[in-house]
Amino acid sequence: MEYKIVMAKESDKAEILSLYKSQIGRKYCPWSDDYPSAETIDTDISRNALFVMKSGGKIISSISIEEDESVDALPFWSRNIEPAGELARLAVKPNEQNKGIGRIMLRFGMEELKRRDFKGIRFLVEKHNKKAISCYADFDFSVVGECHMYEQDFLCYEKEL
Fold this sequence. Notes:
28% helix, globular, alpha+beta, Aminopeptidase, 7 strands, 7-stranded mixed β-sheet
């Protein structure tokens, strides 16, 4: 499969929102009609923090560099790998899942965090999301804690970059 990963543009918004909406109702996906929203996309684009994978001119995946003070404030994180960046909203079109795209996007996100001079990566994974947990297993992340936020139970993952 030929693909390219690029920073999302305003003209990509409708297609990204469609990608997000295609995740709703999938097993272990906590997303709803309210989140992530068009406003979430606007914020990510304004911060140069949203990336998409395109294949054949169509968006098949996305990932964002997140800024969330409540996640940053969790007590589990290792202070010796700060500043640490958070990746969020990794989505893959349902018909493109189980092809390694999530791993490619995660690797890209980690490389982008390095380019932005982050020393570490951290993120939350829904505790029962077996697909995501399996995807992340190849990267040797440490599970440093568990938390309950946004009405869900999460594992807290981190790694030095």
